[in-house]
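Hey, resending since the last one bounced:
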Amino acid sequence: MSAPTEHAEIREAVRRYAREQLAPHAARWDRDKEFPREALKGLAAMGLYGIAIPEQRGGAGLDYTAMAIACEEISAGERRSVESHLTSCASCRATLAWRLSACRSPDRTG
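The structure tokens again:
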């Protein structure tokens, strides 16, 4: 599969997840200053953790463009919920970037 095709598929899948699973709850999560573990597990189930880490090291083996697309779509999905800007929260942004760039399970810390 070519990178542009793969990137388009990632964009659509993450956009759909953000629209259906994140946006409806983003305003409440922002108000309550929380980002539930279940939402992180959903991102992990999509294969987004360790997205730019080589497969032989436990990652998805994709490139940094794929990681940027995933972050962009998560942010956009949350902004679609008019009153919420969850990714404007520095800790939320840091958590998402850390989870997407490293091979971390939502059930493990460290």
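DSSP finds four helices and no strands in the chain.

Sorry for the duplicate.
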